[in-house]
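Researcher: Before we compare anything, I want clean individual predictions. No alignment, no superposition, just each chain on its own. First chain goes here; please echo the sequence and then give the structure tokens.
Model: Echoing the first chain and its structure:
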Amino acid sequence: MKQAEFDDKGSCVRWTEAAGVDPARVYVHGLGAASTVYHAHVAARPELAGRRTLFVDLPGHGISDRPANFGYTLEDHADALAAALDAAGVSGAELVAHSMGGAVAIVLAHRRPDLASRLVLVEANLDPYPPGTTGSSGIASYEEVDFVESGGHARVLEKVGPLWAATMRLADPRALHRTATGLKHGTNPTMRRLLEALTVERVYLQGECSDELPGREALEDAGVRVVTVPGAGHNIMFDNPDAFAAAVAGTL
């Protein structure tokens, strides 16, 4: 385990690392998740072995610190991820990022192009939530105090079911709510526009069992390779690990 400070109060973002050759491959989890849980089983496969590999837990999640006075916006998470990569001496990394983590990876690649050479985005959030929707399994529909102190967190854990709840219960409730709210508001320009403007290699994985990807044609016109993964929903790394590993390896 390694760590790096991400604010001016000594709070640390942490990651576990496997030695190997560069460029490093960096796995970034989604909301209420943890990188090793979602990605270690794929990273250990023969077609992905031998590369330097980092499993980063974003602030408020997993093994990273969870300061109460941190904003947990997408930009905040991207800056914390940059702090981890800078401390690790990583540049030109391949970022393999799921859901909310994909949005963070897009922001990172926009703000720090030196840190990213390739993006593999797994059903990444590209747009703010439309008015009238709650998103993130209802987390952002609560006021922060209600979610943290009045039972909202427990109700959401029950709603999402045992698999997601297994890691979501490890995330700090305040960080979880602020991160979900950050997703609701998105970025300006949106994550979609930032992604379209990037020039690094970009792969977007969409599960066959999920809804159609809005704006797919425009993404492809901008040079994003969009791949529909058969037999998979939102958690492609669990639903079809063969295709997920092939996409990361560049052989799908």
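Researcher: Okay. Second chain, same rules.
Model: Second chain and its structure:
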Amino acid sequence: MTILITGATGQLGNAVVRYVLDRTNEQVIVSVRDPKKFTLDGVEVRQGDFEKPETLDFRGADKLLIVSGEAPDTETRIQQHSNAVAKAVEAGVGHILYTSLTDADTSTVGVAAVHKATEEAIRATGIPYTFLRNGMYHENYLGVLAADTVAVSTKDGRIASAARDDYALAAAVALTTEGHENQTYELTGSTSWSFPELAGDRFRDVSDDDLLAAGLPPIVVDFFKAIREGVFAEVRPDLEKLIGRPSRPIAV
């Protein structure tokens, strides 16, 4: 079996590669925009850019993990992912895995449109798929929680986040074990938390407009709004089941 992983110079993708190498002796290939940035041994490295589909080479892949891209706008990201999916079909890939978002098909979060469209494109290929719907990452909030004043618009909304490393392990498990065809995994932490709970006296309840006026990117404010509305509060069992243990709690 040959496993091919995109985005392997990114934090999530690189961690997935490391876990896969620990778990299997099967051939591992990575597709990265800049091969010079990939430094792990024992892996075939192919140069590939989602924006330039002619560079994407997924030939020989029994399992392909498409790590979602980070283009600045929805249309570009959807096109990038569509390019990757089309190349997977062209290459005869046997199984497509994709790092998606919690409740991608129904979520009100702005970026969910990217993941919904990508999931639909993958389903339309008829190739067996696995959707790894990652929830929030602990790492997204550690800086905020470490500040002297934790000013957010989440109120007491809860977040069932998990460590990036645990999401990476879940992807590696799906890549190296059988039985994940046509499955959608809703991946969350084993527990949830809130900003008032962790920040204590340092917590300040502000509005979305306050955060925008302070220069916070709209996409970040959109996620705070979603937290306030309970979008990421539900604890689900899929991550624990895949990695075989409770996820690591957030540490501040």
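Researcher: What stands out in the second chain?
Model: The longest strand covers residues 95-101. Additionally, The mean pLDDT is 97.
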